[in-house]
Amino acid sequence: MSSQQFTLPDLLAVCPLKDSTNPHYARAAAESTAWIKSYNIFSERKLAFLLQGSSELLVSHAYPYAPYEQFRACCDFVNLLFVVDEVSDDQNGKDARRTGEVFLNVMRYPDWDDGSALAKMTREFKQRFLAFAGPNSYRRFLMHCDDYVNAVAREAEYRERGQVLDIASYQTLRRENSAIRVCFGLFEFALGIDLPDAVFHDVHFMTLYWAAADMVCWSNDVYSYNMEQAKGHSGNNIVTVLMREKNIGLQDAADLVGDHFAMLMNRFVETKKQLPSFGAELDDAVAQYVDALGHWVIGNLEWSFESQRYFGSEHMRVKDTRVIILSPADEN
Known about the structure:
Elements: E1 5-7, H1 25-37, H2 44-52, H3 55-62, H4 68-89, H5 93-108, H6 117-130, H7 135-161, H8 167-177, H9 180-184, H10 187-191, H11 203-231, H12 238-246, H13 250-273, H14 283-306, H15 315-321, E2 323-325
Antiparallel strand pairs: 1-2
Helix pairs in contact: 1-3, 1-4, 3-4, 3-14, 4-5, 4-6, 5-6, 5-7, 7-8, 11-13, 11-14, 12-13
């Protein structure tokens, strides 16, 4: 195979989970898109890229069970994350931390405001979120937001230095800077449940949690590798980490991602059978949370090929062939 192309691992083939979409998608997506466009914070090029990514479609696949109000808030939040991600991608560590802290301060403090569009967007999301979030899930959500902001700033610092982490360090960072934990933090809000911390201290439950989080992170990395290498941002990607640490080529690294994903999926399926009872009053809520983890994993895979976020107008061809032609460096 040419060094200018590689074949994606067939992750859908090893994923037995069933995909669903949210019936409120059309209405909520239109409203959330209009909401983000109303702030005029992006250039036409950046806005086109954001809209092409169809983030609300991801939310439809990832939270198919959410009632309308909660679903609309999830759409707004994922759009908000794309704003933070796209802005910080072009910033150094210090500025990325400052951007993240605007988001974080609004989420933490009732009256904090610096007059920015990001602060106003965050405040409007927060109002929607607090209408349904329980006290336990809200506290955990804030903790994950804090970890996310710190990780995004660290990512920017590594990018400045041209530093590529080892596999273990990268996985720890990726679990936070991917924002998957804050996205998982919306499950209870969307389901109308509020689990006690004891559930999150259970070994089997957290094995499921981390397997799902890592499946999302590793699949996103291999799918986004071409787009990121064209932008010069490939250092924050498991494909690059594997190539550097194991001294292997691009195709071998992509294949390793596929092997690891299959191992994680098997762990998820088998551990689900071993989940203990948390008591009659909690078992149904825990089962709903575990199902929500699965919805995110399969939903993310389906969305990656249904949208143009990673593969542009080639997305259907890529789904059929899995062959990626490497793009030239983006001079813009």
